[in-house]
Amino acid sequence: MIEAVGLTKRYGAKTAVSNLSFQVRPGTVTGFLGPNGSGKSTTMRMILGLDQPTSGHVTIGGHPFRSLPNAPRQVGALLDAKAVHGGRSARNHLLSLAQLAGIPAARVDEVLGVVGLQDVARKRSKGFSLGMGQRLGIAAALLGDPQVLLFDEPVNGLDPEGILWVRNLMKMLASEGRTVFVSSHLMSEMALTADHLIVIGRGQLLADMNVKEFISANSADFARVRVADGLAERREKLTTSLTEAGGRVMSEPDGALRVTGLPLPRISEVAHESDVRLWELSPHQASLEEAYMRMTQSVVDYRSTADQKAGLQQPAAHGHGQPGYEPPQPPVPQVPQQNWYAPPPPGQNPSAAAPAGPAAATADLTKRDTSEDAR
Ligand SMILES: Nc1ncnc2c1ncn2[C@@H]1O[C@H](COP(=O)(O)OP(=O)(O)OP(=O)(O)O)[C@@H](O)[C@H]1O
């Protein structure tokens, strides 16, 4: 088991990890999720004794990594797949690691087979693709047949077949009773791979729960309702009736209504009582990716801005008066996007600004009253 208690890492004025406490248990795949720059790699480096915590501590099986006897036989890690001497062949790279850890050479060929690199084992790794590099890094992690495995973004650069392979490998390693800790910024991938999730944002814990709990706490169920003929006045009438009945109604771009807070049979009754015929009444569930984005939207460090192309001139062929010329448009104000994520838990305004910080994001999770959802 990996256990972090009050783990904190500051680089000068920057706090990369802040008072993080969690446990990673054996026999399960634990996904470690967070947006770019949220502190995942820093946490993993501290687990592996590569970075000293500013305060707090982290142990593996009750010991700090540096005091583990024969650590490579107990803990395997993929941190940076590019951290390989490019002039060495894949096999020689693994052989040198094996020699340092007292692992027999025969094991090198075994792990090369496990990761599917046996045919390129004698090729220099500098010619490897990103995906091949990831496989080599995974082979290095498996070398000592360790009980504890850490993988930082292991599916980076892998093709769909490779992603499926990593997913199955993680599950298999956990089913053998090992502790498997995998970082990713892709919720959709973790939802398929992990049993348990630890989500961080700006170095702070946002969620620590199993995947099923995460789904029920975060995936807002909603009903999609389409009024016959799509007549605006009928839609408005139904919207009023559903709101009076306690539902929350939002409009989708195609004119359908998104309703939360009322079960489907009740929506049908309300429509009938209001004499509004329906063409569609269907149950939906927001994806986990949407829930994750909603949870972390206030703690994303890096956001893109619109490309204003300042100082760039229009190509001459499309100047004023020329066919195809379009005058420069002022930046369009962003309308709050209500169609890319499910409505937030009942009682919250979807157009309101994002919560102020991680604490608020955590509060969102706990506040939710699932009994009000459309089921
Ligand atoms: N050696 C360092 N010196 C200064 N700042 C650092 C150092 N290492 C990390 N940081 C900062 O700490 C924060 C967390 O970085 P970290 O690499 O741990 O995040 P991450 O979640 O792994 O990100 P990504 O998903 O992009 O890999 C970032 O703001 C990063 O710039």
UniProtKB/TrEMBL annotation:
Pfam families per the UniProt record, alphabetical: ABC_tran
Keywords: ATP-binding, Nucleotide-binding, Transport
Composition-biased stretches (Low complexity): 349-363
Alphabetized PROSITE patterns for the sequence: ABC_TRANSPORTER_2 (PS50893)
Domain ABC transporter: 2-227
One GO MF term: ATP hydrolysis activity
Compositionally biased spans, kind Pro residues: 325-334
InterPro entries: AAA+_ATPase, ABC_transporter-like_ATP-bd, P-loop_NTPase
Composition-biased stretches (Basic and acidic residues): 365-375
Region (Disordered), start-end ranges: 306-375
Family: Belongs to the ABC transporter superfamily.
Protein name (record): ABC-2 type transport system ATP-binding protein
Record organism: Streptomyces atratus
